[in-house]
Amino acid sequence: MTVTQLPKDPYNIIITGVGGQGNVMASRVLANMLVMKGFSVTIGETFGASQRGGSVMSHLRVSEKDTWSPQIPKGRAHVIVALEPTEAIRVLADYGNPDVKVVSNTRPIHPAGVIAGDLAYPALEETKKTAQGISSQAWFIDATDEALKLGHPILGNIIMLGALSGLDDLPLDKEDFREVIAKSLPQNKVGINMEAFDLGRKLLKE
């Protein structure tokens, strides 16, 4: 296995979303892709009050030679991948810094307080403006909408992984993804996941 130089060591990635979006699967797939390249990867996960609908956050710390504690220090994330847009802002508040990059889905998932009318949910343009103001670069991708076109909203997590690969900060190529996903899913699911990964990379580049 060949290790490619990282922009920073450790390179700190946070994948955040809400329960039911496939956050944990995305973090495991990403970690396995990086381990295949020879990196040391540690994962730490936090879960909200409920499995479905509560906040879910995965910390991945990637190194060329060392093993780091799974918890990223406050203010030290290098990239935040958000499967839900307001989760991007919540994580930025604790782990952001002037150099952090953000890749976020645009589709909101309203918490119970918003559905009940007790809380207000910010407009997407407000969320974008906030993220762009407290990060070095922020991309917003219609991952859920595109996943629905492919047949299932859960593919949004794979589209977001593809978008992360489009940053080119990490050696995330499609053949490594194919190998990892083929070990995790039935063979008849591999093709559509490959399509989702390619689409995510294309969306970010556009």
Mean pLDDT over the full residue set: 91
> Any idea how many domains?
1
Provide the β-strand percentage band.
15-25%
CATH topology (fold) name: Pyruvate-ferredoxin Oxidoreductase, domain 3
Write out the strand line-up for the largest beta sheet, numbering strands in chain order.
2-3-1-4-5-6
Précis, in short:
This protein is an alpha/beta fold and 206 residues long.
Q: Can you offer a commentary on this structure?
A:
- The structure is a single chain.
- With 206 residues, the chain is an alpha/beta fold.
- The protein has helices at 23-36, 85-95, 112-115, 124-133, 143-150, 156-165, 174-184, 187-205, and strands spanning 11-18, 40-47, 55-63, 79-82, 101-105, 137-141.
- It has one domain: Pyruvate-ferredoxin oxidoreductase, PFOR, domain III (Pyruvate-ferredoxin Oxidoreductase, domain 3, 3-Layer(aba) Sandwich).
- The protein contains eight helices and six strands; from the N terminus they run E-H-E-E-E-H-E-H-H-E-H-H-H-H.
- The protein has a six-stranded mixed β-sheet with strand order 2-3-1-4-5-6, sandwiched between helices.
- The two termini are 31 Å apart.
What are its keywords?
globular; 206 residues; 42% helix; Pyruvate-ferredoxin Oxidoreductase, domain 3; alpha/beta
Describe how the helices and strands are arranged.
Blueprint lengths: L10 E8 L4 H14 L3 E8 L7 E9 L15 E4 L2 H11 L5 E5 L6 H4 L8 H10 L3 E5 L1 H8 L5 H10 L8 H11 L2 H19 L1
Parallel strand pairs: 1-4, 4-5, 5-6
Antiparallel strand pairs: 1-3, 2-3
Helix pairs in contact: 1-7, 2-4, 5-6, 5-8, 6-8, 7-8
